[in-house]
Specification:
Length: 295
Amino acid sequence: MYSSHYREFRQIVNEIGMERVVRMRSEDRKPSKRVFPLLQNLDLDTVTFAQIQSTGNPITIQDMNEQEMLDLIIVNLARLCTVSEWDGLLEAGGGQQAYQIPSAVCGPTGNFKYWNIATLWAGSKPNVVALNLTSNFQFWNPFIAPQTAAPAGVSINVTTATTSQNLYVGFYESNSGGYPSTLLGYATISTDSTGAIRVTSFTEASSGSLTFTKGEQYYYSFNKSGTEAPVLTTTAGDDTNSLTPDNVVSGTGGQELGIESVSSNTSAPADVADTTEIGGTGAGGTNRLQVWMDF
């Protein structure tokens, strides 16, 4: 009797096991209707999280979409393995570096959509200063991306206009040493009028390169296309809450809140090849140009 029950039990187990094997056969796999067709021409080392996110965004959580969700997980894990992007996956607790107040809690998105990347990090309200930009050098300042997306617009505020000149606002990756490195793209903004000036077109280093990942550090830069001196809205150096190096242990140290180019530059932004292109020995910006991004 025991052997009879055991044989029945083994038969059930085998049937269940075989049923699972049959379901997992590649020839019985449900074809991907969205994930693979949309991402099939991309390489794992170039596909971005934003592209995977936009692919998965319309997929609803229900049984009929099980295969699409599995495909999405497989592609994203393969991407993470390829680019060694493990932030958030190998850490417990905490969270990304980000702005302390998400725009959504301030009211409708249309009312609070402009991220001022000069006012890092939150603390006392920064002192707004009108800066007469006489320097012809290029300056870089670090910032933390507030959104995972490409910017829809970039804005500055001009107090005194120029006659015929542009301001370049560039965006750079931050390399492993914390320096600005690869150019993602830049905005060309005319300073020939006063007030808030917003542009919605950008020059990208390559197609789709100007995109950010929330919580990651990047650099923005600014430099003029000529020698005229516009007056621009900035954040004063002593009111910028950020981690900065100092030259002495003293209350009168020369804090540097930005990085300055070694030589003058009135050309459009380009990659920073190495640290020989950026200033040292105390050379740096003490004001951050106020730049607003919206997505």
